Amino acid sequence: METLFTKIGKGEIPSVQLYSDELCFAILDIAPVNKGHALVISREPYATLEEAPLEVLERIMGVVRQLSKKMREQLEADATNIIVNNGPAAGQEVPHLHVHVIPRFENDGKGFGSHKMKYGEGELTTYGDKLRL
């Protein structure tokens, strides 16, 4: 299935490319949370993380790691957010595996955590039992 990202990967849609190999590529996001926000994208259009082979995930995370380091060095970012919106209910807009690498700065006002929930009596153990590997 062809996606916006497969077209970008083939050069049919312009982008600012940061990295490219046979398994993945990285570009600047055109609607960044902060300037320098990058996407690391699988070459093959796997819709979700679970569909991608481990080899692809390992390569993607290696590139994510390098970009995170580069953002700290070159943009003087204080931190980075590494985000995978894994399916439409999680905010994934393009059904093609991609990882957001977002440079973060102290007091940039774009933090997470304002919507945290609390577990009810016994729920923590119940969820642990359901999710234990």
Tell me what you see in this structure:
The chain has 133 residues and is an alpha+beta fold. It has a single domain, classed as HIT family, subunit A (2-Layer Sandwich), CATH 3.30.428. 27% of the residues lie in helices and 20% in strands. It contains 3 helices and 5 strands, in the order αβββαββα. It has helices spanning 4-9, 54-74, 123-131; strands spanning 17-20, 24-28, 38-42, 79-83, 98-104. Strands 1-2-3-5-4 form a 5-stranded antiparallel sheet, with helices on one face. β1 (17-20) and β2 (24-28) form a beta hairpin. The longest helix is centred in the middle third of the chain and has 21 residues, at 54-74. The protein starts with a helix and ends with a helix. The model has no long low-confidence stretch (mean pLDDT 95).
Could you outline the blueprint of secondary structure elements for this entry?
Elements lengths: L3 H6 L7 E4 L3 E5 L9 E5 L11 H21 L4 E5 L14 E7 L18 H9 L2
Antiparallel strand pairs: 1-2, 2-3, 3-5, 4-5
